[in-house]
Amino acid sequence: MIKLKNRKLRWFFNNYIRTKINLICLLIVLIFIGISIGNTSPLIFGKMIDIIGNSNLNELLHLIILYFIVTVITKIISIIEDFIGQTVSFGITKETQKDLFKKIITLNQKSLQNYESGELISRLNGDADSVVNFFIDIITSIIQIIINTVISLYFILYISKHLSVVALFYIPASLLVNLSVRKYYKRLTEKRKKFSDSYFSFISEVFNNGISIKSFNLQNRINNRYKDFVSKEYKLLKNSILLSNIVGGLTTLISVSSSLFIIYYSAILIDKGLLSIGLMVSFNTYINKLFDSINQILSLNIQKQEIEVCIERLTEILLDYSEDEISGNKLIDSKLIDYNSISVNNVSFGYDERKAVLLNLNFKIDKQGFYSLVGKNGCGKSTIAKLLIRLYDTDKGSVTVGGNNIRECCIHHIRDNISYIQKEDFFFNDTISNNLKLANENISEIEVQQVCKNVGIDKDILSLCDGYNTLMGEGGDNFSSGQKQKLSIARSLLRKSNIYIYDEATANLDGSAEKMIIDFLLELSKNSIVIFISHKVSSIIKSDKIFVIDKGSVIAEGKHEQLIEKCQLYNEIFYSTK
Ligand SMILES: Nc1ncnc2c1ncn2[C@@H]1O[C@H](COP(=O)(O)OP(=O)(O)O)[C@@H](O)[C@H]1O
Ligand SMILES: [Mg+2]
Hints:
Elements: H1 2-17, H2 21-38, H3 41-54, H4 57-106, H5 109-112, H6 117-159, H7 161-164, H8 166-208, H9 210-215, H10 219-271, H11 277-318, H12 323-326, E1 342-349, E2 358-365, E3 369-374, H13 381-388, E4 396-401, E5 404-405, H14 411-417, E6 418-421, H15 432-436, H16 445-455, H17 458-462, H18 481-494, E7 499-503, H19 511-524, E8 529-534, E9 545-550, E10 553-558, H20 560-566, H21 568-577
Helix pairs in contact: 1-11, 2-4, 2-6, 3-4, 3-11, 4-6, 6-8, 6-11, 8-10, 8-11, 10-11, 16-18, 20-21
The structure holds adenosine-5'-diphosphate and magnesium ion (MG).
């Protein structure tokens, strides 16, 4: 387990931190110079104090100038260090976030559906930042820690070996505190991350469902749930404050005891003439530097517990398979594939291995035409469509298009040629024209307008003040569900694909609008395969072939008149939705 986590930390280091290794090396050199120069100041300061007693003003002036120069140089170096450090860590964080974002939007659907949207937002925003800062912290502080430890150890031993024994108490005592609390830090981090995942998911659900919340009068309940989140966060904060205060308190106790010991023991040594006051001040500064270094190591150790949680969350996504990685590459460069036939052979599939949604499903389409899939809610119609565009892969059996197993074909190539239009399609808060051009950015305004005429939405658009330049609102909220369906059908037509799958895509249209669109699609089906998915039989009676789906299998197929004669389920659906 520990090895695995370290392997992931190493993987992250090699992939992201190493890319900026030149700047990091420069940073290390600057830190080295800065610390080496800065470490002379306690000695100079101690000498100044001793000279005050000797009234040698000339030498004191030299030391004051030296001290000033050392301070200015170390400050300038630390400003440059800070600038480079911050820009490097920002750069690496953004690189990680770019990769994470890309992975999220290309992640295979089966993995993606394991995450709530808030969880993805929280991983994208919170985790990369913490991991990168940890690495930069380690890299930059390791050199600082080593130099500080070596120099301060040298000086404390040089100034007084007797006084140095205090370290023998400080180091094991601090280590003991650290080892006993670090597992609590890890647990707390896990809780905090889980909290932020569910918090962001809750917020995004609420903001996306404003109208439903109001219409169900759920404001108070939602408000109370928000209050629950706040009190949970409050509790987590209290635990975190408590923990850091306990650690802080114990650490202070250890360091105060050490300092008091130093004062007492110094007094004895000064009394015996074995130590000067100036050297005592220098010793104090060096030993505090040593203690600081030890504390830095210990706090990095605690931080590592938190980072292990973040790295696990990052790599879970970054190392998962994207669609590109599971895609075949057949026909990637050419359009040789013949999209005139589809064959679904003995396909079984389940979103969850415990429950099959499709079971030994078979159907064939061997020429262009208008085909329909009908069946009751939940029988697997949309799932079939999702397999056809490879949103999911079959568990058993195969899907072939133009004789090619789609598992061997390039996913992008398939999706360029098979358009899948859902009942609730997506729109961005952009103009109508730009939303339609998502189908194909090279399309002309005239083509956009022609297609809108074909689906009967052009008059609605022209009656708007800004016409095709009207903003659609978030998710297209400024338009009715029927208008959005017409627009999404128009957009699909602009894609000029070989196969179109309309999944309940006319469900929100009134009778005459639906008829107009179906007539148009019947025309379209002379040169392409149109698959129309519906739970309403009345809209598909003119189909060239209808497949009746029940519990994930095709139980009958044929023309409307044949099915009315031979299929009981088809009759049931036909008469109930007529
Ligand atoms: N993303 C999903 N994860 C888990 N189960 C799903 C998912 N999508 C659909 N299902 C389940 O699969 C079955 C078939 O769904 P679907 O194909 O959407 O039916 P429909 O015929 O109404 O289009 C249903 O029982 C549904 O609950
Ligand atoms: Mg469906």
